[in-house]
Write a structure and sequence with these properties.
Elements: H1 2-16, H2 19-35, H3 43-50, H4 63-74, H5 81-90, H6 93-118, E1 121-122, E2 128-129, H7 132-140, H8 143-177, H9 181-196, H10 199-228, H11 230-243, E3 248-249, E4 255-256, H12 259-274, H13 281-285, H14 293-325, H15 337-346, H16 351-383, H17 388-401, H18 408-431, H19 433-443, H20 458-473
Membrane topology: Multi-pass membrane protein
GO molecular function: amino acid:sodium symporter activity
Subcellular location: Cell membrane
C-alpha cells in the first residue's frame, strides 16, 4: 500500500513540477517583467525602503519585519542543498539558470505582493490578513480557488516548512555534533513554541535579528572560501556560463548535460528556492505597515535578490570552484545534492564544515518560523480561527517526530503541494495584471502617497456575504 502511494505521489510530483510548471512560472516572470516595465531597475530603491520605518501606515509589523519573516521562510536548506542538487543533476550550468530565475522572478514577487497588500483585510482585533486567497476572493470573485490555495498552503507547511527542515537540522547535529536526533526534535519544538504562540509580531521580532545574522554569516563564510579558491573563480564562472548552453566536459572533470538538463534543474531549483510565484511570501507582506501596495511590493521583491541572486549564486560558485580545485570529487558518481554539497564544503579544512553546519541549522530554523505563519494564515482562511491552537500544537508535534521518521514521502507530498499552491496564485497574478499595472503607474513615482482606501474589516465582508446568501435563498 505504501509503495503504491509513494509511486502515485512520485508520478504526480513529476507532472506538477514538470516542464509545464516551469514554463508557466518562468513565463509569468518574463511577462510581469514586461508588464511592469522592468521593475527590477527599482531594486536599489526597494532596498532603501526595506529599512525605512513607516509607523503611521496601517499594519502589524514594520516593512523590514515583514521582509525578514518572508526571507526566514524563503532562505532555507534549498539555498545550500537545493543548489547542490541542481549542480549534481544538471551540471554546473544549472547555476546560471538558477540565478536567471531570480533576476526575472523579482517581477513576479513584486506583482504577487502588490495584490496581496491591495486586497488584504483586517480583523476586529487588528490582525492583518492577506495573500493569494484574498486577492482571488476580493479581486476576482473566485473564493473557491482561494480556498484551494489556502488548503494546499496549510498542509504544505507541515512538510516543506517543518518536517523536512527539522530533519535537516537533526541530521547535521547528529553527524557533526553528536546530538541524538530525538533530542534535536524536542529542542526545536520548544524553541519554536516560544516564538509562534506570540503571533506575527513575535515571529517578526526574532526574524529581524536572526535573518540578517545568518545571511551575513553564510555569505562571509562563502566569500572566505572563494578567497581560498581565488585561482578557480574565473574558470568556475566561465564553466558555469559555458555549460549552461553546451554539453561536454570542462576543467576539473566537470561535465555538463546540455542546455535542456541544465535549464530544467537550474530553473526548478531556483523557483523552489525563491518561491516567486508560489504565493507564500505575500502572506507575510500583507501584515506590513505600508502606505500603499506598491511600497511594500518593492520591499518584498528585494527578497528574491538576496535569496537567489546573492545566496544561491554564492553557493553555486563555492561548489563549482571547490570541485574544480579538488578533482577527487567525482561528480559523475554523485546524484545527491546533499552529498555533493558536504563533499565540496569539506574540502576547506575546519571553516568549510563549520559554515555548512551553522548555515543549515539557522536557515532551516528560520524557515520553520516563517512557514508556521504562512500555514496559520492559510488554515484560518479555510477552517476558521477556532482551529489555530490545534494547528500550532500539531506543527510542534511534527517537529518532534520529524527527526526519527523517513521523510521521503513527506518531502514529495510537500513539494507537490507547493506546486499546487503556485497554480491559483499565478492565476491571480496574470488575471489581475491590469490592476498591478494601474497601481504601479499610480504610486511608482509617488512612493510616499498614502492609499485613500482603508483596509476593510473581514467580519464586515463575511456579514455581507451571509446577508447576500440569505437574500438569494429567499
Amino acid at each position: 500500500m505504501l509503495e503504491a502511494i509513494n509511486s502515485f505521489v512520485t508520478s504526480l510530483n513529476g507532472i506538477v513540477w514538470g516542464w509545464g510548471m516551469i514554463i508557466l512560472l518562468l513565463g509569468t516572470h518574463i511577462f510581469m517583467t514586461l508588464r511592469t516595465k522592468g521593475i527590477q531597475r527599482r531594486l536599489i530603491q526597494g532596498i532603501k525602503l526595506s529599512v525605512t520605518k513607516d509607523k503611521e501606515a496601517e499594519g502589524e509589523v514594520s516593512q523590514f519585519g515583514a521582509l525578514t519573516t518572508a526571507l526566514a521562510a524563503t532562505i532555507g536548506t534549498g539555498n545550500i542543498i537545493g543548489v547542490g542538487t541542481a549542480v549534481a543533476l544538471g551540471g554546473p550550468g544549472a547555476v546560471f539558470w538558477c540565478w536567471l530565475t531570480g533576476v526575472f522572478g523579482i517581477a513576479t514577487k513584486y506583482s504577487e505582493t502588490l495584490i496581496s497588500v491591495k486586497y488584504r483585510v483586517k480583523t476586529k482585533d487588528g490582525r492583518m490578513q492577506g495573500g493569494a486567497m484574498y486577492a482571488l476572493e476580493r479581486g476576482l470573485n473566485m473564493k473557491w480557488l482561494g480556498v484551494l490555495f489556502a488548503f494546499f498552503g496549510g498542509f504544505a507547511s507541515f512538510g516543506i516548512g517543518c518536517a523536512t527542515q527539522v530533519n535537516a537540522i537533526a541530521t547535521v547535529c547528529s553527524e557533526n555534533l553528536g546530538i541524538p536526533a530525538w533530542a534535536v526534535g524536542i529542542i526545536i519544538a520548544i524553541l519554536v513554541a516560544l516564538v509562534i504562540f506570540g503571533g506575527i509580531k513575535s515571529i517578526a521580532y526574532v526574524c529581524e535579528r536572526l535573518v540578517p545574522f545568518m545571511a551575513a554569516f553564510y555569505v562571509l563564510g562563502c566569500l572566505f572560501i572563494l578567497v581560498l579558491n581565488a585561482d578557480f573563480i574565473i574558470p568556475a564562472i566561465e564553466t558555469i556560463v559555458t555549460l549552461a548552453f553546451n554539453p561536454g566536459a570542462a576543467a576539473g572533470g566537470l561535465v555538463g548535460g546540455g542546455i535542456m538538463q541544465a535549464m530544467h534543474f537550474g530553473v526548478a531549483r531556483g523557483l523552489f528556492s525563491n518561491e516567486s510565484g508560489m504565493g507564500s511570501a505575500p502572506i507575510a507582506a500583507a501584515a506590513a505597515q505600508t502606505r500603499n501596495p506598491v511600497r511594500q511590493a518593492m520591499v518584498s521583491m528585494t527578497g528574491v535578490f538576496w535569496d537567489t541572486v546573492i545566496v544561491c549564486a554564492m553557493t553555486g560558485l563555492v561548489l563549482v570552484s571547490s570541485i574544480m580545485k579538488n578533482p577527487a570529487i567525482d561528480m559523475g558518481a554523485i546524484r545527491d545534492g546533499g552529498v555533493l554539497t558536504t563533499l565540496a564544503f569539506n574540502q576547506i579544512p575546519y571553516i568549510g564544515p563549520f559554515i555548512l553546519v551553522i548555515g543549515i541549522i539557522t536557515f532551516a530554523f528560520s524557515t520553520i518560523l516563517g512557514w508556521s505563519y504562512y500555514g496559520e494564515r492559510c488554515v484560518e482562511y479555510f477552517a476558521g480561527r477556532k482551529v489555530l491552537t490545534g494547528y500550532k500544537v500539531l506543527y510542534l508535534l511534527v517537529a518532534i517526530i520529524a527527526p526519527i521518521v523517513s521523510l521521503n514521502l513527506v518531502w514529495l507530498i510537500a513539494d507537490t503541494l507547493n506546486a499546487m499552491m503556485a497554480i491559483p496564485n499565478l492565476i491571480a497574478v496574470l488575471l489581475l495584471s491590469p490592476v498591478i499595472v494601474a497601481e504601479t503607474k499610480k504610486y511608482i513615482n509617488n512612493i510616499d502617497l498614502k492609499d485613500e482606501e482603508t483596509v476593510p474589516y473581514l467580519e464586515d465582508i463575511r456579514n455581507k456575504e451571509t446577508v447576500a446568501k440569505e437574500e438569494l435563498a429567499k
